[in-house]
Amino acid sequence: MRKKTKKGKLKKIGQLVLPLKLADDIQRIVNHYFYTKGLTLREIKESAKKRKIIYSRYVKPAKQLLELAGSRKKAIAAMDKVAEWAKSRNLDYTIETVFKKWLELDRLKPKEVIKKPFYRGDPMIWSETKKKWYIIDENGNWLEFAGTESEIEWRIVK
């Protein structure tokens, strides 16, 4: 995965030989990408050994992201924002996705979680005109809700 060299302050990552600080920043950005995907450092290392993850494939985009962002902190913050946005929409993302969304970073927001009311598995609707809850049964009939607020089940609907 990586080899440290004793010649000066250089580190070899994949095919690239980079100054130690730059290599460390790139490595942290790549690792952070995998953290956002839900992997731990141990899982990353094991996957790299088994060739499930080709670590060197992520080095070049990480270096480009570091150059674009200017610092490791800004690169990681941008990656976090894109990861949160993509996860809320059930989208897959890579380090390159951060480049594509770079100009929109300040406008990227995660999708809002919408909770809808249900009563015993049937959806409910609030009528503003009558100020009452109605239950819609499986036949499409609207039934007036006579229970209490505590009986309403709120579910996240995607």
In short:
This protein has helices at 20-36, 41-49, 59-69, 72-88, 95-100, and strands at residues 2-4, 10-13, 16-19, 115-119, 122-127, 132-136, 142-144, 153-156. The protein has 158 residues and is of the alpha+beta class.
> What's the helix-strand series?
EEEHHHHHEEEEE
Please identify the structural class as seen in this structure.
alpha+beta
**Shape call:** elongated
Multimeric state = single chain
Q: What order do the strands of the largest sheet run in, or round the barrel if closed? A: 7-6-5-4-8
Can you give the mean pLDDT? 84
Enumerate how many helices there are, as a single number: 5
Strand content: 15-25%
Helix content: 25-40%
Instruction: Return Rg in Å.
Output: 24 Å
Which stretches are low in confidence, meaning pLDDT under 50 for 5 or more residues running? none
Describe the structure.
- This protein has 158 residues and is α+β, with helices and mostly antiparallel strands.
- It has 2 domains: 2-107, no CATH class; 115-156, no CATH class.
- Helices cover 38% and strands 22% of the residues.
- It has 5 helices and 8 strands.
- It has helices at 20-36, 41-49, 59-69, 72-88, 95-100, and strands at 2-4, 10-13, 16-19, 115-119, 122-127, 132-136, 142-144, 153-156.
- The strands form 2 sheets. A 5-stranded antiparallel sheet has the order 7-6-5-4-8, with no helix packed on it.
- Helix 1 (20-36) packs across helix 3 (59-69), helix 1 (20-36) packs parallel to helix 4 (72-88) and helix 3 (59-69) crosses helix 4 (72-88).
- The radius of gyration is 24 Å and the shape is elongated.
- The two termini are 39 Å apart.
- The model has no long low-confidence stretch (mean pLDDT 84).
